[in-house]
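Page 47, continued from p. 46.
Same chain as before, 70 aa.
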Amino acid sequence: LLVAFASETTLARMTAILATRGATIVDGPRGGLYRIALPQDLSDADEIEKAIAALRAESGVTAVVRAPAR
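Result:
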């Protein structure tokens, strides 16, 4: 996933937002986007969509998009 955070969101807040979902920053920021890894046990498409929706609902998150595989 690629995630954009509001400019006022601190690194501590970013980390906390992601930690509640077991996600981690693996790269970035590049062009204002962070590459995020979801937990490997989230393999079901519905679970992944729920995680994306939950991230989008967080204050401090401005965008969440699926990233091409690396």
